[in-house]
TrEMBL record:
Gene source species: Kitasatospora aburaviensis
Domain of life of the source: Bacteria
Keyword Metal-binding tagged: yes
Protein name: Isopenicillin N synthase family dioxygenase
The family this protein is said to belong to: Belongs to the iron/ascorbate-dependent oxidoreductase family.
Pfam families for this protein: 2OG-FeII_Oxy, DIOX_N
Keywords tagged on the record: Antibiotic biosynthesis, Dioxygenase, Iron, Metal-binding, Oxidoreductase
Pathway of action: Antibiotic biosynthesis
InterPro entries xref list: DIOX_N, IPNS-like_FE2OG_OXY, IPNS-like_sf, Iron_ascorbate_oxido_reductase, Oxoglu/Fe-dep_dioxygenase_dom
GO molecular function, one term: dioxygenase activity
Keyword field contains Metal-binding: yes
Residue stretches making up the Fe2OG dioxygenase domain: 176-283
């Protein structure tokens, strides 16, 4: 569980705490509703989306026990008997790669729920999940999944306010969302010859990503507008949120989908492993992603043609599948 407390100072409004390029924003979801404060939070979120495309959120309302439950279940899964993982091994013929991926950077894709949510209505998104037989794992995974769904819905509502839209503008675009969730395990690297990266520079391709990361050394970095790599330090009780390319299309490139990577720990700490949990919030498969009305005008026509969320997701997933089949397991999707 993360315990790092980076030095932060409140802005005058008491909402945004800044540590370098990535702001820390208290969403206020654990307090009584206050429309004035909520409007200020939405503007802080909008500012982050226009600049770094990354923010760290606190006051998010996700119970600590829900996070701990999945973190502990994931630790037992990845550190436990190999035969438990092999029961949930993915099918290499499945482009969505549900299940456990047996490479040096082990990943579990089993919680995307695509099959359950599309119910065969969108061909290509109905391959089954592959759950491990480990007692309690599925329940912990689904509890976290539902909590991340609720948090993502609230963030999208703040996005809507920041974009001068009705607060619920995005709601019906995500009421049958097709979100993959990935549990990443980074094993100890002692004695292994490798470069300094655990995951190559890339951007995400969904609407937004909600990331939980533990406080083990070697973690997330973002590339700022000057091309410098900056750490996103773990903050106790927080989630990292970043925009995907679908949100950039929706906002006519006004909001940033920022390049990021995961680095290895320093040599003296290579014996430590690490777990992160990424929730890639993806709109309904039949949702049309077209330029938001408030993001275009006579002098700024739409930059991208409309695209269905499911078509976009499948095209990006197939590219990632091809890269994996070529052995480029850490290549950006």
């Amino acid at each position: 569980m993360p315990t790092t407390e980076p030095a932060v100072q409140p802005d005058a409004d008491g909402i945004t705490l800044l540590h370098g390029y990535v702001p820390v924003i208290d969403l206020g979801l654990e307090e009584p509703a206050d429309p004035q404060r909520r409007a200020a939070v939405a503007q802080a979120v909008r500012k982050a989306c226009e600049t770094s495309g990354f923010l760290v959120v606190v006051g998010h309302g996700v119970p600590e026990a829900t996070v701990t439950g999945l973190y502990d279940a994931a630790g037992a899964f990845f550190r436990g008997p190999a035969e438990v993982r092999e029961q949930a091994a993915n099918d290499f013929e499945d482009p969505l790669q549900h299940g456990w991926s047996a490479n040096d950077r082990m990943q579990l894709f089993g919680g995307s729920l695509l099959g359950e949510r599309t119910e065969g209505r969108f061909p290509g998104l109905d391959s089954p999940n592959r759950w491990p037989g480990q007692p309690g794992f599925r329940d912990a995974f689904l509890a976290y999944y539902e909590a991340a769904t609720g948090l993502s819905r609230e963030i999208m509502r703040l996005f809507a306010l920041g974009l001068e839209l009705p607060e619920t503008w995005f709601d019906d675009k995500f009421d049958r969302h097709m979100t993959p969730m990935m549990v990443n395990y980074y094993p100890p690297r002692t004695g292994v010859v490798h470069d300094k990266l655990r995951n190559s520079p890339h951007t995400d391709f969904g609407s937004l990503t909600v990331l939980y990361q533990d406080d083990a050394p070697g973690g997330l970095q973002v590339r700022d507008q000057r091309g410098q790599w900056l750490d996103v330090p773990p903050l106790a009780g927080s989630f990292v949120v970043n925009l995907g390319r679908l949100m950039t299309r929706w906002t006519n490139d006004r909001w940033a989908s920022t390049v990021h990577r995961v680095v290895n720990p320093p040599a003296e700490q290579e014996h430590l492993d690490r777990i992160s949990i990424a929730f890639f919030y993806q709109a309904n498969p039949d949702a049309e992603i077209a330029c938001i009305p408030t993001c275009t005008g006579p002098d700024d026509p739409p930059h991208h043609p409309p695209v269905r969320s499911g078509d976009y997701f499948l095209s990006k997933s197939r590219r990632a599948y091809v890269l994996r089949s070529m052995g480029r397991l850490d290549a950006a999707p």
